[in-house]
């Protein structure tokens, strides 16, 4: 075996009150895809930041290419051949796509940046990821998913010997993931050492060669992927067996049964009639019944978020009408929506979700407090109760209501956000990518929660890039394409493939029947070793399925 | 890996196709055939160039309105005098633009201008040659900028406060040099002060204008076409992201204050051409003029968006407001202040309204 | 005990307090009677009392400024608002037949504060409804407002002769200067209003992430109105104290540059200009540091020509000491000392 | 440029109502300055001459801009109170080239070339300081004890502050019983005068006299002295400069002991100069305004018809 290109030994890092890493060893080999596994807050991102000099380490040593190093920051790490895409998109919304990709490495002519060459180069890179973007457009005008791809394009353009991707696929859909994996493989084959972090086990099993498992900042062990069963991996990550998922599987059966009995439709909670907003989403009709879960499906930029934002009162509609429990109304501000007990949890956790300099407690009570008005403060004791109950219910870590949210790991921040919305006891909960970046255990918990809430009468609009998740949870699925609602169907034996076909061209007819028989996954209870988040985010493994037209584009490259 | 869950890659050619267009959703809406009016509105409402264009349009409108109202207003020389009288402010605004683009602010510029005039006047008085004095000033003010930058970057002192301290220091040093105002009689300075560069048609500008325009040109190039310049914008977009992207954030952030210090020094030199004296109380509050010019020119104080040319326009706007007031000639001291405030308000509101985007 | 010490040292108020104590020490050395407080004519008298009284206007404005800054804003117009409020009060008093009566003064004060309130609403309107950047929105009032103040006084210094009005600035109440009492009341009011209700948390939330706050249903617009109005109101009150203190409205000079002092006080107190979490206690310390600094210049006899340099030195010192880099250096030092202690102990034990 | 006006002024007198005068004022930084502005505006109105007024907000550059603009507008006479003495050669040369005569008011310029302006009309700040010093020397001529003096300076760097300090220092230097124990700036304001005096009285409780560079600071000092339980004008004597109404009132009330006048009423004289120029006469190069001094009795007499 070749020598490791990165070798970290005995790394410890403490933050006030938390020991984020405790004597962890970690190494990477050239020509190998390695993954860090662990629950939210296990310390995965921290290891990456330690390696690249974002955080100074308290103890331990880092050896890169045989030499002990101590990088002063990402710039130094980059200079030493380590390219990194950090968790959460860290790009510049005020600059163009091309600049974001090439900033710091712009092609120059006579000392000036050569704008044309830069755009050309960026275009090439994006095309390498099969992404057709105007490189001159502002990054901020693109969705988070596109931004994530741009960040990846930036990293792979750096001629690096180590490529680090911290949850790069969290908001990508299957196509993008496939493209990304193609690129990863080709880089791997050219000898690059790649670190790929993801909470999607399928992706892990598909692409990685080696795993390092962390738990609570401690090393559990390093394994070869093919030698470690999923069930064992999960157990190593969470330290106990995962049981919650069985339950969900069962529930999805009952749910379907309920949905199948189409006659006793629940009372409508929200009814939108040709509600629309110019430039964002074409007028659409949508009904959400009480206790009903509506999944929104669509490709990147298909307008799911825009639709959800109208329902949540985040954006104002400019056409159509909205009825809430039968009464016509207009939602002009999120505030009005909240006072009608409609909660919208944004997909952009950092930009529109958490208040990062406030404590966990303040973040949890924020919406409730805002609804009550500032002169009717929630008593300290009640705040504490609320915070503690959600910290426990959602297993937020560290379990400290006084911790600043900015110091929580990404997944835990998401849980805090969810807690904020649950705290207002919403009647309609709109969740835009709520499970992004959340570990399998927590994801199962959130799914379970959505189920329970719906059974208790709460309506839910659920958006997720993972179609499996959408299918598992929803009574009905609304499909969007090109900012238009193209289908709204009962989730009655619907399959991922059928849904994909819908998403692709809006036709249900041909595809659904055969696929439904062929892939009963959405209804099948996954066993403990095949956790629920498995699914869409996997590129072609079994090329040759006749029903899969992408075979030509992705399958043959393997 | 043989479970039924293992399915070939999702997605279809048509799906891919639709994603393509959706992926570039931001631009695709722009790409469709649209009326010229729509396109105009797009340009005006773009966060990048909109405010600058609107400012330009408003400036022209005000200038024309002044020409209609006042005798002798609508002349080339009145327009050129905007540059002649404000060349130092243009240079200051250029330096300030760098700082503000990173999301910082520099309150010290007015005091540094005063300090520069004091250094120039006192050294020239004691017989130093301008060839030494001018570079010395530029070095000193750049070093002051460097110290401020280090204070901000290394010690994480907020720019507002670090530059406020620098303002106190520079103003204090003025008094230490001399409490009195000092005349500059040195021939080179005097020559530079009185020289007029004829442009034909009875129009003329001063060497200071040329210097200021060179500074502007260099700044446009640096900000738009060098890595340093793009890093300045990057820091304004998000310092954290810039750092994680491996950009030289630390260096750039410090250099930006050096640039501002240098520009303040240069502005001080131009100012001493303009006033031919050093005076410790001079240029009080000029930092606010510079900031206002930059903001009127469409640069966001939070950083990341804006152009040097916008700042130049901002200076011209402030200049034209002042010119209108002198041409009006009947405003009392207090109405002068109210009028300046009101015109500024009208400008900002129009800019806001014209660039307003739907939310 | 040790833990308490550590908490004290790492508190963000530590260095400002140290600086305050240092300034006091300098004064005591230069003028041993500095800390003496005597009772004269039934009220307290001494340098410390002067500092508190003269610092009251800055503190009052700084309290308002703290809340504005917490929302990521800034208010440059406070000086002008102070001048307007003083000018309004004085011109009312001068115009009345009986400026010395309590009623007249009450009317004058009420009208002045009402106008300050309106100006605050105006700032709030520009910032929250029109969406102008706060520094520019308030710069407009800073410029025009002084003009308005001068318009009211016609550029003259309006001297008033009214005992109840004068008391606002230099009177005493149970031995304490009225200005100090007013300052304390405003401070307490702000603290109660923001910390006992949810206002403080909502303000911080808007300051940290406006869009997220909006989506969480926080009425950002209303909050902005509230803080700018409160800030202008406190500026109005400070203006009355300043005016009463010199028994004259001076549209030019009342509150000139007080916005810088107030902002400086806020920042020395550890509140970030980037918005978010704020500390009123810090602002109090900051205001005291600034006023003590001014008094030090007089008592120690620092020549006017280097006053500015001295101020620069103090401000720089506070900021550098407060900085995370310095904190880290101190932490390392402490660690090293602790380690040495441990080693010494070990050696002793073995 | 203003070529046409050149012709106008050399051709002989214009009708008065066609004259245009541009006046660039320092600003409106004090009551004194406002009185000055008001007086000038009123005088020109009475004379029927059009006055273009601009306020430089205490900035030299604004004044230069204003003068340039007057040249551009082709006024007949430019008058201005320079913010600062230095640095006028360039713009005054432009005025000269355009043939527009310039009159300085209140403050002089230090230009070597005195052809750049026609006339200076104003006060002599050094002289004012001397007059104040003379009174002090006279007042304490019989005393042999040291005389402790606090000086309240004007804005650091401002010409009146520097000159008044200089004139005063020159005179009291004659006798070393005079000791300036503290000298601080009160920025020409009441608040400044009060705060400085307050603090200085604590550290120098045995002070005999306060010399204030203007009445406003003296008025502030009075408040501070009273707050310290002392009697202004008796326990601590006060000398100041300006003679604005409030100051004169305090003088009449016995709270100030002596005031040196610095008159802002330059309007009439300025109109005269303009008319002289228009008639082709040459006004005197340096016209010092008639200024007097007031002691307490004179103040009582002068107070009723004090205009500002
Ligand atoms: N700057 C910080 N200050 C304080 N604590 C921090 C900081 N950064 C991370 N932590 C803590 O360190 C621990 C590890 O966080 P890390 O971000 O590495 O988790 P992770 O494994 O990447 O989780 P996720 O899957 O949610 O991204 C968490 O408990 C987190 O709260
Ligand atoms: N007014 C606008 N101006 C420019 N771009 C916009 C505007 N509104 C939306 N967009 C962009 O258009 C795209 C629409 O994507 P949107 O988020 O609605 O789709 P989605 O189906 O939710 O996709 P995702 O899976 O990325 O969440 C995004 O890139 C969004 O940023
Ligand atoms: Mg992470
Ligand atoms: Mg979305």
TrEMBL record, chain A:
SUPFAM superfamilies referenced in this protein's UniProt entry, alphabetically: P-loop containing nucleoside triphosphate hydrolases
Keyword Transmembrane included in the entry's annotation: no
Comp. bias intervals (Polar residues): 544-558
CDD domains reported in the protein's UniProt record: ABC_Carb_Monos_I (cd03216), ABC_Carb_Monos_II (cd03215)
Domain ABC transporter as annotated: residue spans: 6-241, 264-507
Pfam family, one: ABC_tran
Name of the molecule in the record: Sugar ABC transporter ATP-binding protein
Gene source species: Herbiconiux moechotypicola
TrEMBL record, chain B:
Primary location: membrane
Pfam families in the cross-refs: BPD_transp_2
Keywords for the protein's UniProt record, in alphabetical order: Cell membrane, Membrane, Transmembrane, Transmembrane helix
Region annotation Disordered: where it falls in the sequence: 1-37
Topology relative to the membrane: Multi-pass membrane protein
Record protein name field: Sugar ABC transporter permease YjfF
Origin: domain of life: Bacteria
Transmembrane annotation, as ranges: 50-70, 82-101, 107-124, 131-154, 199-223, 254-276, 288-321, 333-350
Keyword Lyase annotated: no
Gene: yjfF
Record keyword Transmembrane helix present: yes
UniProt xrefs under InterPro entries: ABC_transp_permease
Annotated Low complexity bias: 7-30
Localization: Cell membrane
From TrEMBL, chain C:
Ranges annotated as spanning the membrane: 12-31, 51-69, 76-96, 102-122, 134-152, 172-193, 223-244, 256-276, 283-306, 312-333
CDD domains, A to Z: TM_PBP1_transp_AraH_like (cd06579)
Membrane topology: Multi-pass membrane protein
Organism, as annotated: Herbiconiux moechotypicola
Subcellular location: Cell membrane
Pfam families given in the database record: BPD_transp_2
Domain of life, per lineage: Bacteria
Keywords: Cell membrane, Membrane, Transmembrane, Transmembrane helix
Name of this protein: ABC transporter permease
